[in-house]
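Quarterly update from the structural biology core.
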Amino acid sequence: MATISDHFEALGIERQLDLSPETLRTHYDGRCQEAHPDAGGTAKGFDAVTEAYKSLTSPARRLRHWLELSGITVVEDGSLPPAVEERFDPINELLRAASEIAERHREARSTLVRSVAEAEGIALQPRIAEARGELENAIAEIVSGFKRFDQSEPCEIREEAMEVVRSLSFLERWEAQLRAAWAKAGCW
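Predicted structure, tokenized:
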């Protein structure tokens, strides 16, 4: 079995879940200065710091990594966790609408059709922005529970933590998809 790199260690951070973006960025910047090949580091070391930062900035990936460092394998079966199930249909509808508008714009043969599609995309942007805000709030609410996880042994909260990983994975993925859809909806 391959050894797991400790991303917390790579950034010089205590192994904990409750980390602010500012703390992560500060440690990342400091480690980059040390690990960069131009500063006497190695490309491999610099890549390890970059991968650690990328992993730990995602709450889902941070929690997954924390569990895996404790020997707990997180398996995602692709099914929607009950905690996020009710969000699926509204998010899917927005993504479908944005995709259809982008397709109409792409296939437009006239300026009029293109302009109508652009207006529809711009009109869809506030709904997408609102949905993104709701997802960001849901993620923040879940992440606020990381303080409690930090005070527990991973084996004690294994099942709950695995469900949180699944929920966060969906929420983060949907937020990224909505961010891309928002950009497409107003900028062709």
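The chain has two domains: 7-57, 82-186.
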